[in-house]
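Continuing the batch. This is chain 6 of the set; chains 1 through 5 are on the previous pages. Same settings as before, nothing changed between runs. Recording input and output for traceability.
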Amino acid sequence: MWFVRLIGFAVAGLAMCAASAAVKADVVVVVATSSPVKALGRNQVADIFLGKISRFPDGRQAVPIDQAENSATRDEFYTTFTGKSASQLKAHWSKIIFTGRGQPPQAVSSSAEVKKRVAENPDTIGYIDAREMDGSVRALPLDPQ
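Output for chain 6:
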């Protein structure tokens, strides 16, 4: 009887792992189709979203558009680009806000809202699930730096 339970737990565990793997988003960084920004390094993208820099390499203001805290796309973006988990990101912004050095990017509710905001303003930069790409925004090629 204990063996049947053990197998049941193992199957349930595998199912949960498979479900969490399916949630993983393939994230792309996007800019407006009219944006003069042609490419950025991964570190530059991370620095923009972490509030370390506020300008694109050409000197223009960089306005990051974030996704909601409970978004799988957001979690994947920050893990991939900054190496920070959701709790580490929260701690990062708490420190920045407390010291008066900045505010986190404005967060919107979905990839569709990111696309809308980015398409309207060539100074914005965002990220979305690659499956939601369309002609309203342009995927930004990333230099490996």
